[in-house]
Design goal:
Helix content is about 35%, strand content about 20%. It has 18 helices and 21 strands. Helix 5 crosses helix 12, helix 6 runs antiparallel to helix 10 and helix 14 packs across helix 17. It is globular, with a radius of gyration of 23 Å. It is α/β, with parallel strands linked by helices. The structure holds fe (ii) ion (2 copies). One fe (ii) ion binds next to strand 6.
Length: about 550
């Protein structure tokens, strides 16, 4: 039974193949189109998923998509009427864009299966988010929270998962949205909203959450039933205006940043919005925990990429453990839609836990050798790449690390990564300036073998997808300056031998040389570009940045 899962309606378009209840391949369109967060139909991703799995369109038994195009239309029309005339243009826009996307999908469908194709299942967006994290989690039963800006007008979903079913308790609707609320702060800080929320999160610890705390806290509330409510007098996003916040917002918090230096007011806004987001999420957790009495929580939706929020939920919400699927944003709804169809619609039992994020394309050493020779590059084949890489890293090199199958989701988890020694104090500034070309305040994340995590980090359980932030142990902070953020935290990645043997071995060997099996791990790309997918892209990125060496499979490329 092969199900093709698709997210083609929202941003971060993606495709996956679920074969007999297990993810065989999952690829984001941005990696192939080279347009970050692309909303384009994932035609390339579909073709590559089929190629990697060795399947033809005729082998597909069902198509699952993460949109139910007709859902919430009455709510949208009522909204347009109630907020006339301001809301009309954008509701009309939604209609037109939605119609166009459906049109593209059906054209593709007819081209692919001219004689008639498999059944198409339209799965509501937040059901796809919720299913995409619960049905692939290690839990038989769990509380569920899904939070995003909005998908089909819904902005939140809380409920309970048991067996192969997801039961909703409550939903919130646009414009009452934690995602849109937070995007406004992103825009106010001069970053790109619905894109750069990670920057806002990274900036927050530089501000004082108390300065604007009282005002911001009252802007957004959660009622006893779990419905999110936003005081819209502070915002304009409800009309899809170009500026998401109102004049009242500027009067209270000062001028928004338009390029130039970040002011104290921007840092304080980031801090207050981050705190309000976490506090509201904790309220939702308390509610859903009370209703389900579950010991476990699963989280999804674009807001679930806020790893600082996830870290606080893990520490404070009272669950034994939490699971966040690796592609918690809209990219993961392709997987969620497919699993919803396989289990909930078709009734198959669960046989899969999504603990392996390496579900994309890979390139053999033969292929890499051919690319290197086409580029007229000299590269030495290594007998023990982990040992070679560990030595270079302990010498202070910045290393491109391209191995095995590409990750699904926004984080590089040791297969498309740039690595360095986090003990070197200048390393963070060096990589920000010479390799990633990004803001100096942004932190880098550490990878550590799971057995060694407790020595350096204060976290319960694992963090296999780098989606949980935790404190670095105080005595270790000065030893790991390049991955310790200004507030003493780190966005941790724990590595197991079972899931990524080669990266695990590298960490072990690096630890053998330096005494500390922790590596700085950042995604293999430069600011604004998607993570590299192919050896050619890795080579291009390597030579256009200040990386010192590049490990391409078993080949080592050097400079100079
Ligand atoms: Fe979403
Ligand atoms: Fe979204």
């Amino acid at each position: 039974m092969n199900i093709l899962g698709l997210n083609y309606y929202f941003h971060d378009c993606s495709a996956c193949l679920v074969a007999d209840g297990k993810v065989a391949v999952a690829i984001e369109e941005e990696r192939l189109s080279r347009q970050k967060h692309t909303p384009e139909f994932p035609e390339r991703a579909i073709a590559r998923c089929l190629a990697v799995a060795g399947l033809k369109p005729g082998d597909i038994d069902a198509v699952a998509v993460s949109i139910q195009p007709t859902k919430n239309w009455p709510v949208k029309v009522l909204y347009a009427l109630a907020h006339a005339p301001n809301a009309r243009p954008f509701v009309a826009h939604e209609l037109i864009v939605g119609r166009n996307r459906q049109h593209v999908f059906w054209n593709w469908y007819r081209d692919t299966w001219p004689q008639g194709g498999p059944r198409v299942h339209f799965v509501p967006h937040h059901v796809a988010h919720a299913a995409g994290t619960f049905l692939v989690s290690p839990y038989e039963e769990a509380a569920i929270i899904s939070l995003d800006a909005s998908g089909e007008w819904s902005s939140s979903f809380i409920g309970r998962g048991a067996g192969t079913r997801v039961v909703p308790f409550s939903e919130s609707f646009f414009p009452n949205s934690l995602g849109h609320f937070y995007e406004s702060a992103t825009e106010f800080c001069g970053f790109r909203p619905n894109y750069d929320e990670g920057k806002t999160m990274g900036l927050a610890p530089f501000g004082d959450p108390e300065v604007f705390g009282k005002v911001v806290d009252r802007m957004i509330t959660v009622d006893a039933g779990g419905a999110i409510k936003v005081d819209l007098s502070w915002f304009r996003f409800q009309y899809y205006e170009r500026r998401r916040f109102s004049t009242k917002f500027i009067e209270a918090f000062g001028p928004p940043r338009t390029g130039g230096e970040l002011g104290d007011n921007h840092k304080n806004v980031a801090a207050a919005f981050q705190k309000a987001l976490e506090d509201r999420a904790l309220e939702l957790c308390a509610l859903v925990r009370g209703k389900t009495r579950s010991r476990h929580l699963v989280i999804a939706g674009g807001v679930a990429l806020n790893s600082v929020m996830n870290g606080r939920i893990l520490r404070e919400a009272g669950f034994d453990d939490i699971y966040v699927m690796p592609a918690a944003g809209d990219n993961g709804t392709a997987i969620g839609a497919a699993f919803h169809v396989y289990h909930t619609v078709l009734g198959h039992p669960r046989v899969f836990v999504h603990d392996d994020p390496y579900l994309g394309t890979s390139y053999s050493d033969d292929h890499i050798a051919k690319v290197l020779s086409d580029c007229k590059l000299q590269a030495a084949r290594q007998d023990d790449m982990a040992a070679t890489a560990a030595r270079l890293l302990s010498d202070g090199q910045i290393l491109g690390w391209f191995q095995g199958r590409m990750e699904i989701g926004p984080r590089a988890l040791g297969n498309r990564s740039i690595l360095a020694n986090p003990a070197l104090p200048h390393m963070k500034d060096k990589i920000n300036a010479e390799v990633k070309h990004r803001e100096a305040f942004r932190p880098f994340a550490p990878s550590v073998p799971v057995e060694d995590k407790d020595r350096y980090f204060d976290i319960s359980g694992e963090s296999p997808f780098m989606l949980k932030v935790c404190p670095v142990r105080p005595q270790m902070r000065s030893q790991l300056p390049a991955i310790t953020h200004v507030d003493g935290s780190a966005r941790l990645h724990t590595v197991t031998r079972e899931v990524n043997p080669r990266f695990y071995e590298l960490l072990q060997k690096f630890g053998g040389l330096t005494g500390t099996p922790v590596l700085l791990n950042t995604s293999f790309n430069i600011q604004g570009e998607p993570i590299v997918e192919s050896p050619e892209e890795a080579i291009r990125c390597f030579f256009s940045t200040g990386m010192d060496s590049l490990a391409l499979g078993n080949f080592l490329v050097t400079k100079g």
